[in-house]
Amino acid sequence: MNAIIKYFVVIAIVFVYGSDATTTLLNTNSFPPNFTFGVATAAYQIEGAWDEDGKGESIWDRFTHEYPHRISDASTADIACNSYHKYKEDVQLIKALGVDYYRFSISWTRILPTGYLNNINEAGIQYYNNLINELIANGIDPVITIYHWDLPQTLQELGGWPNSELVTHYVNFAKIAFENFGDRVKTWITFNEPKQICKLGYGDGSLAPGYKSSGIGDYRCVYTILKSHAEAYHLYHNQFNTDKQGKVGFTMDNFWYEPGSTSRADEAAVERVFEFYLGIFANPIYGTGDFPQIVKDTVGNRSLLQGFETSRLPTFTTEEVARIKGTADFFGLNFYTAVKIGNNEADLSTVSWDSDAGILYWWDPSWPSAASYWLKVVPYGIRKALKKIKDTYGDHPIIITENGYSDHGELDDYDRVNYYLTYLSSILEAIYEDDVKVVGYTAWSLLDNFEWVHGYVSRFGIHAVDFNDPNRPRTPKLSAKIFSEIVSNRTLRSTTVQAPDYANMNAPSGIMLVVLIALVNLLSRI
Ligand code: GBH
């Protein structure tokens, strides 16, 4: 056969195979009938109006005002998206998406400006009542995160979360929320990402309030948060959930942890990081009621070897274990990415959460990156993480309370569309292949917003916000259109954009190469 014809036959076959590989890898199932979709934000990241109508100062107000150099673009969220004044417009954007719910957080110092009960700010309560009523009038369920990182500065003056006294203050705040909003709000998240609150806020100091007390203060923070969560859960179910329609959950962030090598040491490091990063919260609430055994043993032993008189990890009493165990009606999961984990030989000279965990982490250079350095596009990770959670803690209903992608604000955000399609496909696989009870999915975020220490540099919104315009106009991105199509179709099949699946590309292109070589051999014999 003519060599040129052979060449074209091979190219044609590879083409057909290749296009098939990139377009049919999205899962073809429909989302289950009761599956719900939503979008999320957080108060400090969008509201602005940082000192209006009686609002008090939070640790994020203090952090951005006092340490501008710690924010990539030296920005603050004093105005942010100005959602305090533009919430009605936000609700119309949410309505246009056709989603079932809106997950937002309530600002503690808008409601309790001093952090204490001596000043209950009616204007703050009114703002959230207005927002909730507007949502309901537009057919959208409100989902409240009680704490999304904006602690009253006054409570930081007491030491913040490492001080167990904060349990009382947190429960006072939660009670006001249940009392005022509980008639209309049926889904509650007590805390968002406690690992970041503790490990970054009080451990390495990279987030507000910026304290560096890793291996001590951060563990005390974990202890306070778990007790605060449990008390709020019991309060709600004992005193407020009279119609039995309400649910209270806890939202943790988790990465998919992949061994850095095939060595047993790295595989053991993956098991440890799961317990030190997720289990430290999930085991008390969804498991035995106590910290994971390996965390207790490791921190206990290392503490003694380092000369501390007791473990640096606080110890729960039997009563506390009983009080915390089982205090969640769903498992809230913020999931974004995967990370490589390697064993780090125990070094007793360092006192820190990560040296207790005995791990190092890095990102595989082959993983495509979002604008956030830590966010790599690894869609299969979400399926694997969901299965691991189910296998470890049992069959809890899981709500993906955040998932999303950062870029620099482009309106034709194909990479974000690709991210949503491939991650949702992986979630469908978790549901249909692994039988994981995923009941809801929340896109982060409704709007481009203040991305904490990354300021306005990286953008997560499915709507763009022009931060240079005092009116803060919003513009839907391509991803908003595609997300609304997914929500209304309840499947990924018929969206108007089908993006390639990065995650599965390596395997098919490897297979394609083998097929190609085989074909060339075969054809050369004809
Ligand atoms: C969530 O945090 C937050 O809930 C939300 O407010 C935020 O805007 C959104 O996601 C996007 O970031 O990985 O150790 O190098 C995500 C948690 C916190 C993950 C910081 C990455 C970097 C530290 N992120 N973390 S590390």
Written account of the structure:
The protein is α/β, with parallel strands linked by helices and 526 residues long. It has two domains: 1-20 and 510-526, no CATH class; 21-47 and 54-500, TIM Barrel. 45% of the residues lie in helices and 14% in strands. The protein contains 18 helices and eleven strands. The chain has helices spanning 3-23, 43-46, 59-66, 83-97, 108-111, 122-137, 153-156, 166-181, 194-203, 217-240, 264-286, 293-305, 318-324, 353-357, 380-393, 414-432, 478-489, 502-525; strands at residues 36-40, 101-105, 141-147, 187-192, 247-259, 330-343, 359-362, 398-402, 438-444, 463-465, 474-476. The strands form two sheets. An eight-stranded parallel beta barrel has the order 1-2-3-4-5-6-8-9, surrounded by seven helices. Helix 16 links the parallel strand 8 (398-402) and strand 9. The longest helix has 24 residues, at 217-240. The termini are close together. Ligand GBH is lined by residues 42, 45, 192-193, 196, 253, 334, 374, 402, 444, 451, 460. It comes from Holotrichia oblita. This is Glycosyl hydrolase. Keywords: Hydrolase.
